[in-house]
């Protein structure tokens, strides 16, 4: 049986004033049913572009140069627009980063949820089903929320409604792009708790895109670390967090405030900046920031495949 979601050698570029920006470069990933994959990295590393490409909802100026995105074995990118729209919501759904802009401000929550469900199956758009889904994501007194407008809800409540909308058609793949970024600490903890509870009742594949290492550790089974548009390391959460192999992954984990010694008086950072994605260096993209660089790093690094589905894009790692 094929994985619910499989990304194969995907490359995405943006046409910008400076030329062609290579946002995602030759990325391959798969997520099995019942599994949660986390995608992490610094801002600008290509995480959100990759998530948008998974449902082919890229902004104007973006172009998929190569690769495929298979939903239950079907390459979504090769389907006509109408067939792609039929897959979105029903087979693959997305929770967007900003819950305020995810909804139409002049329509009630109930009207919008009914529209989401009714576009695929009018039988799922009944008030009882909508109320049941709102209750499932922890909305108190859900029936009264149907007549409310998005601005009448707190950020955390809007994000819960966004998750409810994504789950209405019981999709095989749920993608959450930075689902806690726009929330305060209290609401963030509640959404993390909700997503953790959903793992036991959602029989599909989940992808969570985030720069929050705590979210990855709390929710995910596997993690893919992105840098400059590439997946530089992939493996189980335990393997990555306890024995990271790529220098970038190590540096990223060292910057987690949760592991910083308060008595040191300093917050660790990664020196330098992400390279210009319109003029990438010929060798390893992390070379100028890496404290473990070798002469060989001036050449493109190999992708080393290790046991249990782990891979590392680095000259220092031996198979």
Report on the structure:
The protein is an alpha/beta fold. Helix 6 links the parallel strand 7 (173-177) and strand 8. It starts with a strand and ends in a 6-residue tail after the last strand. The protein has helices at 47-54, 81-87, 109-118, 127-136, 155-167, 185-198, 213-219, 237-242, 247-254, and strands spanning 5-16, 19-31, 36-40, 62-71, 74-75, 92-95, 173-177, 205-209, 222-227, 230-236, 303-305, 311-313. Helix 5 (155-167) packs parallel to helix 6. The chain is globular.
Task: Annotate the secondary structure layout.
Blueprint: E1 5-16, E2 19-31, E3 36-40, H1 47-54, E4 62-71, E5 74-75, H2 81-87, E6 92-95, H3 109-118, H4 127-136, H5 155-167, E7 173-177, H6 185-198, E8 205-209, H7 213-219, E9 222-227, E10 230-236, H8 237-242, H9 247-254, E11 303-305, E12 311-313
Helix pairs in contact: 5-6
CATH topology grouping: Rossmann fold
**Mean pLDDT score:** 90
What is the number of domains?
Answer: 1
Tally of individual helices: 9
Give me the strand/helix succession.
EEEHEEHEHHHEHEHEEHHEE
Principal-axes geometry comes out as globular
Q: CATH architecture, please? A: 3-Layer(aba) Sandwich
**CATH class call:** Alpha Beta
The order of strands across the largest sheet is: 6-7-8-3-9-10-12-11
Tags for this model:
single chain; about 325 residues; alpha/beta; Rossmann fold; 8-stranded mixed beta sheet; 4-stranded antiparallel beta sheet; about 25% helix; globular
């Amino acid at each position: 049986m094929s994985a619910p979601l499989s990304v194969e050698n995907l490359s995405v570029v943006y046409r910008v004033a400076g030329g062609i920006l290579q946002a995602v470069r030759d990325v391959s990933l798969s997520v099995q049913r019942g599994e949660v994959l986390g995608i992490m990295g610094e801002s600008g590393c290509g995480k959100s572009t990759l998530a948008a490409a998974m449902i082919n909802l890229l902004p104007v100026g973006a172009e998929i140069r190569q690769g495929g995105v298979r939903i239950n074995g079907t390459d979504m990118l090769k389907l006509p627009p109408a067939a792609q729209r039929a897959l979105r919501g029903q087979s693959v759904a997305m929770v967007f980063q900003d819950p305020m802009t995810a909804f139409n401000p002049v329509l009630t929550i109930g009207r919008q949820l009914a529209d989401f469900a009714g576009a695929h199956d009018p039988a799922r758009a009944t008030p009882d089903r909508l109320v049941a889904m709102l209750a499932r994501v922890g909305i108190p007194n859900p029936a009264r929320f149907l007549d409310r407008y998005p601005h009448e809800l707190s950020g955390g409540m809007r994000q819960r409604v966004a998750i409810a909308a994504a789950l209405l058609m019981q999709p095989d793949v749920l993608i959450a792009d930075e689902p806690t970024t726009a929330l305060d600490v209290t609401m963030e903890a509640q959404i993390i708790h909700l997503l953790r509870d959903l793992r036991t009742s959602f029989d599909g594949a989940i992808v969570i895109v985030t720069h929050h290492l705590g979210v990855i550790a709390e929710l995910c089974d596997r993690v893919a670390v992105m840098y400059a548009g590439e997946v530089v390391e992939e493996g189980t959460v335990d393997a990555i967090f306890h024995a990271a192999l790529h220098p970038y992954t190590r540096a990223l984990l060292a910057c987690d405030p949760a592991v910083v010694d308060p008595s040191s008086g300093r917050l660790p950072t990664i020196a330098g900046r992400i390279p210009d994605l319109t003029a990438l260096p010929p060798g390893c993209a992390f070379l100028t920031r890496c404290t473990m660089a070798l002469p060989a790093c001036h050449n493109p690094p190999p992708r080393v495949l290790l046991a249990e589905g782990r891979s590392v894009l680095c000259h220092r790692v031996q198979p």
